[in-house]
Write a sequence for this structure.
């Protein structure tokens, strides 16, 4: 993989690494740490060690019948784009952010929670 080769060049002292070695000390240690973490993250991503979200959690909000036509896009206005996010929301904070009735937002959250189970 080309990324691993480049990271090995930086960390292992290839032509690029030799230039960094001149800096030395704490900066070199920091660069080594960052590149090793980046390598580990890329390997985890490539090897599918990072779990994808549950399919139920990313269901579109349109799946909830409790949201009528006028409310359909309200949660999206504050960044809630799927059923899982809505189920984890706080009813009072959501109501405040949307200037909506807290009882109504509580009903949305209850419906989202029930939809996930």
């Amino acid at each position: 993989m080309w990324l691993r080769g480049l990271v090995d060049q930086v960390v292992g002292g290839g032509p690029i690494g030799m230039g960094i070695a001149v800096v030395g000390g704490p900066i070199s240690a920091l660069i080594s740490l960052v590149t090793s973490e980046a390598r580990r993250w890329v390997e985890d991503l490539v090897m599918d060690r990072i779990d994808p979200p549950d399919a139920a959690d990313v269901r579109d909000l349109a799946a909830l019948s409790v949201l009528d036509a006028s409310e359909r896009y309200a949660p999206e206005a504050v960044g809630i784009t799927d059923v899982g996010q809505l189920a984890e929301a706080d009813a009072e904070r959501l109501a405040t952010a949307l200037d909506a009735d807290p009882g109504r937002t509580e009903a949305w959250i209850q419906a989202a929670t029930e939809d996930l189970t």
The longest helix spans residues 25-46. The two ends are 41 Å apart (CA to CA).
